[in-house]
Specification:
Elements (H helix, E strand, L loop, with lengths): L1 H26 L12 E4 L23 E5 H6 L7 E2 L2 E8 L1 H20 L8 H18 L21 E4 L2 H9 L46
Antiparallel strand pairs: 1-5, 2-4, 3-4
Amino acid sequence: MAVLLVSASMNAVLVYRGLESKNMVADACVSEYAHLKRDLPQPFAIEGHENTTPDEEWRLPDPDTGTVALTDKYAVSKGLRKAQRWPWDFNKGIYFIQGYHNLHCLYMVRNSILEYRNNTPQTEHLLHIDHCLTSLRDDILCNADDTPRFTGGHFKQAGSGTNQYRMCRDWSKLDMWANARSGCYKTPVDPFDGVSTLERYKFCPGGGKPWIGAEIFKGVDPPDY
């Protein structure tokens, strides 16, 4: 019993030291825009051939949160290209945060797979699906994650990475950052519903109404960008 307690204690120390070491590295890896640190320990997904992620978990986070309106002054300070004008303030451009674009693509590819499995017509065109797969591949290559995942015995031990922790950024903090700069956009259920594109930018978190008094309703056209 004493041996087991000592072994458990040593494992706890090793885990702590490992996470502490990763925290030191994480401090130097603050994200460029939302200033997020890798300070959230999370395990790799548990392998389970009989389990699938529930549908409700695939509805969040919402990719639309990633549509943000950034001031031109901020964009210039960060070396970003000037973007199309946000309809409610011509001093702001519309940007789509990369992480949310990845989710948008992942959800789309998953939906296409489910439609194939259920023998239902494909919602998205192959070109869009291929764009998303290419985008996800490019992002994986860009990040070049070098975390070594341990391996277990074939069908005798836990699968690769099971219960192994890594340091992640807190997505809820990214949500907060994006919502504070929200573009108020909501993707329509039916993109061909005939509703004005402007109406899609009237879903602000917190109930704000930035379109009231906007120049676009005074006959002023958005400037070229």
